[in-house]
Design a protein that fits this description.
The structure holds two protein chains of two kinds. Chain A is mostly helical. Helix content of chain A is 65%, strand content 0%. Chain B is an alpha/beta fold. The mean pLDDT of chain B is 87. Classes of the chains: A mainly alpha, B alpha/beta.
Chain lengths: 397, 249
């Protein structure tokens, strides 16, 4: 596998070298999502959702938008709208298949519980099995992405975002400001008119795609030159100071959720103003919190930070470079960890063990995928690819 | 001579540990139980009329199956605990509990409940079914507010009660958003929240109860409900400032 020398004029706005910080933070986000998905896990206290409004989901969606624009943007400039669009749709298909696979695992877990658990204390909780009584309905609705069990909302969001990405990318390359403006407008209208996609058996999507697209498109916009345009603002000491102040404010508010008795110190008008902090529709407070985190990160972690090439940064980076596989593995591992906690022990040692082993397995799997892709590319007689492979050019979208 | 003394000692010791265990099992951190929200109607009913009517509105986790179920579920245990703690008061707990009821279903019935039972206090247990069905958190919130407004206008105090902690199923049901909503709504309406989720989590962590148990263990269910009943009684006594009453009488 060799990088093809680009003979055509260099793309105007696309940066050529991949920013390792993206992979690093996406890798860390994947670990945090895994830890957050294990219920009653004390280790999850380290995850950022306990220290501010936003959580790993924001990082994941933003970085996914950024890398999608980076990888497919180059493709679209070099090979045109149709080819790049087709590749994006192929990616959508892969994510859909992965989602269905995770749903099968969920079915296995819940069917096991259905047959093995009969504690009379939890008769009401057993209503989770109601949907097994109409498998025809449920499974079809799951395939239509309308029935989504707990913890399985991110991939459907990702599917919708990528599905609509080709025209957005096309516009971003020509009129980036207009594209971002349209995205903001859609976000505002969504809040105004309560737009969302329906769910089965009731309600709406837990991650509203019409709202969360803002973060995805914003990530893509940054990748296509927006970050450079914003540099003057993001590097200004005033911006950094505001960001830090906001992070401290969010931290203090978050503390009141966890330390009993402190909640009384939050003034009533402030409560009225900020609650509820809406995750479904990507609350402005969450978005702002993510922006503040990003400003501080960009300020203190430079792109050429030597530690990015060190072996300590390698495990999260390699996980971040294979995000789809590692995300799915993480969901599976969180089920496995919960199973171990239920069947063996839910004690603290098991929580720590399950968390550490889970992350080690994620690293090992990511390493294996990297190795396999390299081996595959080196295979004698393998058809030389005619285009730079997005995965090897520094990770996937 | 030695033998009977030793036996007596052993017996006393056993009785003592049993009592200690019982107490320990029901132990609830003060911060989880007592807040600043008051139950004014309850205070008035007890001090003026020496009569207290409580209605429990809830779904499946407010009942227990089997022949001993009704007497062992927490509403009956609450009544027993209140009779013990408020000896001069005629305490009565009525239940309006049906399984598979969402918050919205229950909110619709609140007006009728007020007219028929005239309760001084309504304990509203909800959230589990809404979380299982993944009902829109906004709709859940609206249903809670509608129900609470009916009750507060109708002159009844309210205690909200959230879900049970269920370690075996917790990965399959995302309780978080619903528990948060209940906490916020309780705070804004200035009513006490009986945080069953946190309390049972505490019992599980402290080893008081093995909530991971999978088998048909009625004893466990009865003991947990007994502790919940006592916990609510303690909360009522505190929030209606009835603690000093007993000493004063």
């Amino acid at each position: 596998m060799q990088e093809r020398p680009t003979n055509m004029p260099a793309p105007v706005v696309v940066t050529t070298e991949r920013d390792l910080r993206l992979d690093l933070f996406r890798g860390i986000a994947l670990w945090l999502i895994f830890l957050d998905h294990i219920p009653s896990n004390l280790v999850a206290w380290v995850t950022i959702r306990n220290y501010g409004f936003s959580d790993a989901t924001e990082i994941f969606v933003f970085v996914s938008g950024y890398t999608a624009a980076f990888v497919y943007g180059r493709e679209m400039l070099q090979r045109g709208f149709v080819v790049a669009g087709a590749r994006i749709l192929r990616r959508v298909w892969q994510i859909y298949v992965a989602h269905v696979f995770l749903f099968a695992i969920y079915l296995a877990e819940i069917s096991y519980v259905a047959t093995s658990f009969e504690n009379p204390l939890y008769a009401e909780e057993m209503n989770i099995l109601d949907f097994l009584q109409q498998p025809d309905q449920t499974i079809v609705q799951a395939l239509l992405l309308k029935f989504k069990p707990a913890n399985m909302d991110i991939l459907p969001l990702y599917i919708v975002l990528l599905l609509l990405f080709p025209p957005i990318l096309w516009l971003l390359q020509r009129r980036p400001t207009l594209a971002l403006g349209a995205s903001v407008l859609l976000y505002v209208l969504t809040w105004q008119f309560n737009w969302n996609l329906p769910s089965y058996p009731s309600g709406h999507w837990f991650f509203n795609p019409f709202a969360w697209q803002l973060l995805f498109v914003f990530g893509a916009w940054c990748a296509l030159g927006g970050a450079q345009r914003l540099a003057a603002v993001t590097r200004s000491p005033i911006t950094v100071a505001i960001a830090i102040a906001y992070l401290v404010f969010a931290f203090c508010i978050t503390l009141t959720w966890y330390i009993p008795g402190v909640a009384g110190y939050v003034p009533h008008w402030l409560e009225e103003a900020i609650y509820p902090i809406d995750k479904v529709n990507l609350d402005v407070l969450r978005f702002a919190h993510f922006l503040a985190l990003a400003v501080v990160t960009v300020r203190f972690v430079p792109r050429e930070w030597p530690a990015l090439k060190s072996r300590w940064a390698w495990p999260p980076i390699v996980c971040g470079q294979h995000s789809l596989e590692i995300f799915c593995l993480g969901v599976f591992l969180s089920f496995a960890a919960h199973f171990a906690m239920v069947e063996i022990s839910g004690a603290l040692w098991m929580q720590v063990l399950a968390s550490v082993v889970g992350i080690l397995i994620m690293i090992a799997a990511a390493w294996l995928i990297t190795w396999y892709k390299k081996a595959e590319a080196r295979r004698p007689g393998s058809r030389p690819k005619t285009m730079p492979d997005a995965d090897l050019a520094g990770g996937e979208a | 001579m030695m033998m009977p003394v030793a036996l007596l000692l052993a017996g006393l010791l056993a009785a003592n540990t049993a009592l200690a265990e019982e107490r320990q099992a029901c132990e609830i951190p003060r911060s989880l139980l007592f807040g600043s929200n008051e139950l004014k109607h309850v205070a008035e009913a007890v001090t003026r009329n020496h009569k207290l009517t409580i209605a429990v509105v809830g779904s499946g986790s407010s009942i227990l199956g089997g022949p001993e179920g009704p007497a062992s579920a927490y509403p009956a245990r609450l009544e027993a605990a209140l009779k013990q703690r408020l000896p001069g008061t005629e305490a009565k707990v009525v239940t309006l509990v049906r399984s598979r009821m969402s918050a919205e279903d229950m909110a619709h019935g609140m007006g009728k409940l007020l007219a028929e039972e005239k309760p001084d206090l309504v304990i509203w247990q909800t959230g589990t079914l809404d979380a299982i069905r993944r009902i829109d958190p906004d709709d859940f919130r609206a249903a809670l507010e509608q129900g609470l407004e009916t009750l507060q206008k109708g002159g009844a105090d309210v205690i909200l009660m959230n879900m049970q902690y269920s370690p075996r199923t917790e990965i399959m049901v995302a309780l978080g958003p619903y528990a948060d909503t209940m906490r916020v709504v309780a705070q804004q309406h200035e009513i006490p929240l009986f945080d069953r989720l946190a309390i049972m989590h505490h019992w599980s962590d402290s080893g008081a109860f093995d909530l991971y148990a999978a088998g048909k263990d009625n004893v466990l269910a009865h003991r947990v409900h007994d502790c919940i009943g006592r916990g609510i009684a303690a909360m009522i006594v505190d929030a209606a400032h009835l603690r000093d009453l007993k000493a004063g009488q």
